[in-house]
Amino acid sequence: MERNPFRPKKSVILPRAFYNRPTIEVSRDLLGKVLVHGPTAGIIVETEAYPGGDDLASHSAVGITGRTRVIFGPPGHAYVYLSYGLHDCMNVVVQPDGLPGCVLIRALEPLDGLDIMRSRRPAARTDRDLTSGPAKLTQALAITRANNGADLTRGSLVIRQPKPGLSFDIEVSLRIGITKCADRPLRYTIANNRFVSR
DNA sequence: GTTGCGATAGTCT
DNA sequence: GACTATCGCAACG
Length: 198
Known about the structure:
about 200 residues; 9 strands; globular; DNA-binding
């Protein structure tokens, strides 16, 4: 049996300190990590930074409201919101308590629970369609607004560190699907990974 | 493989 | 009352 670096014998959950850093750093470092929800899991292959502050594309740019409260909260928690009235999208809250900042998880490479993902996403014609988009992956892993505010360092929704040894190139590009501050290169992808969104 | 468009509901002005 | 950090399907090449 070959040792798969993404399935270590004992995988480690990312500690809170991992998230207690600048948004851009965490966005890059999240690539290659494993998002786990119950029996389903995938490798993070695409992220976008939403640092707040003068970035008008960030939801937190409007200040603290009912929706954006968790973005200003402690790091290492999930921010899940409804997009276009239809789709749930998941972010990771970063930076110290009181400062805004989050990272949108845009695509995964399926790792565990493929059969469950397929049954949750009947519209997916191929496995590439399972998790190659921010709302696709939340459907495949059954992440909803019920998970908003969840602690990613314990419980059923966590992010794990794969065993070291796997290397890949990182590409930086413009964020997708926004109109404000669309000229900022804050999208991070694993080069040549076919599960990255289009 | 590509482009174009409608669905849908929560959030903020 | 306008806007949106998307997806899926249809039509075409």
